[in-house]
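Margin note: ligand = uridine-5'-diphosphate.
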Amino acid sequence: MATGTLIYEGKAKKIFTTGHPDEVLQYFKDDATAFNAQKRGTIVEKGIINNKVSERLFRLLEQSGVPTHFVERKSDREMLTKKVAIVPIEVVVRNVVAGSLAKRLGLKEGEAILPPIVEWYYKNDALGDPLIADDHVRLLNLATPEQLVEIKRLALKVNSVLQPFFAERGMILVDFKLEFGLHSGRLILADEISPDTCRFWDQATKESMDKDRFRKDLGKIEEAYHEVLKRVCG
Ligand code: UDP
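Resulting structure:
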């Protein structure tokens, strides 16, 4: 597919214009970063896997009544999406203690979180994406209180759809990060949902099947990403 002008280049994706003013093209790269881009590397075919996994999950969520930016997958690495103004909040949903939550609150990795919790992080690389509260969202004008209520409702809905989907495939959905955007004044789910943005543990072995293998140098990174693709789309 012929690509338009590069609008934005992030750590894992490039965004291009298309012939349609309301749509953009997401191009998924193999570049991997962690710890606020202090660690960099390549995960071979990651872009292809994240594009296909995201497509499957966006389709599932749309069927379940969650509005998303997904329009069509154009090629192995390209996804056509609705153009949005991204709400600069990283929305994290947690079902099991892991990562920064374990560190920050001294909780034991692997403990179930019931009911699941939703956290906000200010999407700002220069500040290292700090954890923020509702009042900071208002202070920084990141979203209105009404939008924040809607974002939380949608995030929990996404969790209630994805958790059983992954459980049926022998995977524990530990936690994940979502981004929302405004399209024609409406909040919709944007970005990607992939092993880069979720923690998945194999139900049987509890082994990580996601970017933690890169973050923690656990090896067999590509194998894990391919296994996720097989279980999600296979
Ligand atoms: N996450 C993400 N992008 C980020 C930070 C976190 O996709 O910039 C995801 C991460 O993969 C995990 C969840 O959000 O699934 C919670 O991450 P956590 O806060 O534990 O941060 P980390 O351990 O990555 O520092």
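Helices lie at 46-63, 99-105, 134-139, 145-167, 212-215, 221-233.
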